[in-house]
């Protein structure tokens, strides 16, 4: 299996930049390929540049399989893009330098539709104060959850889901007693211990998203990070999966679109304003651009 792109599993970086592009008209595929090659060359050992493709651009590149644009029956904003760039760095200066170079190279052929600069908050916590991504599998199980297996034609790559969430109710959330905040998430705040089945509220976030389906754990690899300033703040959600359908299933459980009809209580305090999914190909595929 070809090697996955750098940076997916390395959680040591503290600064993050996400750029979502749309493909305009009148550009040749070869010109786009050339711009992609130049953008990839910006990557350094401590500034990995991940590249993932929306269904429209992937189809233009003619790679033999397709996938649908993001949709969840109108329940979640669908803003499907054509190209996702994720740059990570150890410091803001390195992130800015790499991001500016990548944007200048790609802006000749694509239109920037979203830019989010994000950061690691304390010890990997969301702005809610709760540790983010504690349900991530570890070791080889992380790769099993995130990397597409054979014999799928996309094997070695990964499906990616991104959403910009705005924490519109963060002030109200912080007014709740800590025990009630923990009921929203389904785990403790201080030390991130998941509730057992008896204590887990039916509408807790963990209870809605850390589940099995037909006996198969619906694990994904989360790398979300907070973003914002004093007037708008939230979470840029980014996750990797071996199956595109896992994202759809977990979002349906959050929005009460499954048989039990239970809605994730976390949605009372935060809302997504964008939604796209992507295919992140292997390093070997990118090297052959």
TrEMBL record:
InterPro entries found in the cross-reference section: Dimeric_a/b-barrel, Dyp_perox_C, Dyp_perox_N, Dyp_peroxidase
GO MF term set: peroxidase activity
Cofactor dependency: heme b
One Pfam family here: Dyp_perox_N
Residue intervals of the Dyp-type peroxidase N-terminal domain: 40-108
Keyword vocabulary terms for this entry: Iron, Metal-binding, Oxidoreductase, Peroxidase
Top-level taxon of origin: Bacteria
UniProt domain Dyp-type peroxidase C-terminal: residue ranges: 125-282
Protein name: Dyp-type peroxidase family protein
Organism per entry: Alloalcanivorax venustensis ISO4
